[in-house]
Amino acid sequence: MFANLPLNALRAFESAARLLSFKAAAAELSVTPTAVSHQIRALESWLGLMLFERLPRQVRLTDGGQRLFHSLHGALLEVAQSVDTLRPQRSTTHLTLSTTAAFAALWLVPRLGRFYARHPNINVRLDTHCEVIDLHQDASVDLVVRYSLDAYPNLYGMCLFDESFGVYGSPEQVALAARQPPTLISVRWHNSKLYAHGWDAWCAQAGETWLTRQPCMREYDEEHYALQAAIAGQGLVLASNILASESIASGLLVGYRPEVQVSGAGYSALCVPGRERHPPVRAFFQWLGEEARLSGYALKNSVKLFQDRVTHI
After folding, report:
1. Locate the HTH lysR-type domain: which residues (predicted)?
2. pLDDT tens digit string along 272-297?
């Protein structure tokens, strides 16, 4: 059934397509770039179509190449995972998760001990760089947790929770704000589509006139810096109910007029289709879903699975 499949050429193609480089594929496969090029040309001849556009200093997949890569990558990944399950279990299994520094620091890490208590042999490595990762191209990352309003195809995922924005501060600052205009703390968003003009929207909904009085405004690049400033008593912060939840539960922050909330986007956990069946990834998805439900902010009181939809920064 599979006797005529050019397996070496398909393996060379998958590596080159994932890395978008014949040279990088050669290094990964421990062969020469010329050998990779020959294998791919032989595969193109066998198929009767071009898989790559050869450009100066780079290559780019054609439409046919994209279709073959998505199918082939998923198939090889499933074979690799099946083979891995047959090997004697090692003492520790590694899982790489990519997310934002703020989500990792303010929501994930405080809860991660509960995951380790249940799965002591799974070691979670956190990648908190801001760059958006293409999971089809970067096989080193098992799954991502992303925040967005957008939807993109070809990933398996779990919607974790919707988000809203409220105003929070230390107990002393919240009490003081009832008597005098507070210092306002905000975040300089990298993607303004996600939450633009936040204080304007909140003040309009609350009927507060703080912004008309030229208030003192403090601005930070990351949400965890802004929340730490609020905890330290530097003013009131406009912040995500998800990211502020641990500080609220511990009493470090309290809500100012907590009934006033402005809608945000949502968080989702995502991976390449098929990878969700890999035991460490499956375990982490299950744990994330349970934690989302426990947090009280899960989407419509449930965690929804979706296919062919992806959200990211």
Report:
1. 5-62
2. 888 888 889 999 999 999 998 887 65
CB 146 within 8 A of CB 99: yes
Report the SS3 class of residue 146.
strand
Any idea what DSSP says for residue 58?
E
Residues forming beta bridges with residue 220, ordered by sequence position? 187
CA angle 137, 142, 146 (to 5 degrees): 85
Please, what are the domains in the chain? Answer: 7-86 (1.10.10.10), 90-313 (3.40.190.290)
Position 238, amino acid: L
Tokens standing for 254?
Answer: 């309290």
pTM for the structure as a whole: 0.67
Six-digit token string for 203:
């003040």
Looking at the DSSP assignment, which residues form a beta bridge with residue 127?
98
Per DSSP, what are the bridge partners of residue 94?
Answer: 123
Containing 290, the helix (H) or strand (E) segment is: helix 279-295
Alpha-carbon distance 26 to 162, whole Å?
44
What length is written for the chain? Answer: 313
What amino acid is encoded at 233 in this protein?
A: G
User: What tens digit of pLDDT does each residue of 215-238 get?
Assistant: 888 889 888 999 999 999 999 999
